[in-house]
Amino acid sequence: MNARTEPVQAEPDIPARPPIVRELLLVAGLFLVYKLGRQLAAGHTGEAFRDAHRVWDVERWLRLPGEGAVQSLLLHGDTVVRVANAYYATVHFPATAAFLIWLYLRRPAHYVWARRALAAVTAAALALHLAFPLAPPRMLAATGLVDTARVYGPSVYGPPQTDHLSNQFAAMPSLHFGWALMVAVGLVVATRSRLRWLWLLHPLVTLLVIVGTANHYWLDALVAAALLGLALAVVRAPRRGTVGTPAGRGAPRLAPAGERQVLAGAGR
Q: What is residue 51's three-state secondary structure?
């Protein structure tokens, strides 16, 4: 083939990965700030129960389906409810961490976008936890719900009076649901597989688990989804060209005029 007609492949346009040490320190710092901030909201027991009654009444006024309908499905068998408790206890953090690690290694531009969105949602959630302490439905007698983790296990919480590792009066918004929804949205945006929409099953299962185990109200998930929507409206996703293989791969470009002249002469 005449060299005059041969295209020259473009160099792969791979977004630079942020320095890994900086990212580890940043993510660890955000997590510590969040954990410490949740502790600041602990101890507001009376206010948390008053807010719980308000949320319960608002849900009934909105005619939302009762959380008990979901829990009754889980209580059909001990195995089902234990699996739900284990999902609540073990999937939340590892799934989010795996999501961020995969994006960092394979989709650097999407990693920065997802990390910023998660940080924004978490910061907004912390502010709401401080302003609106909320007892979960498992603690509210008016709901008639069972604390499935305490009854069937496994449980990640101890008695609220002695639990110094977590703030159990920070039910709204549900970061279990907010983070799961971000994982699904991030993977749908960052991949091209026709099956990528199945990632939406993760937040769907998470929603059924957090409600069915009486750890959250429906409104906790709705508020988390609204906060994530606001975060994604502010933090713009990368251009579609950065999805999948490095942008520019497979799109040949012609060599500059000077190079074409040299190549043409070489082919004579």
A: helix
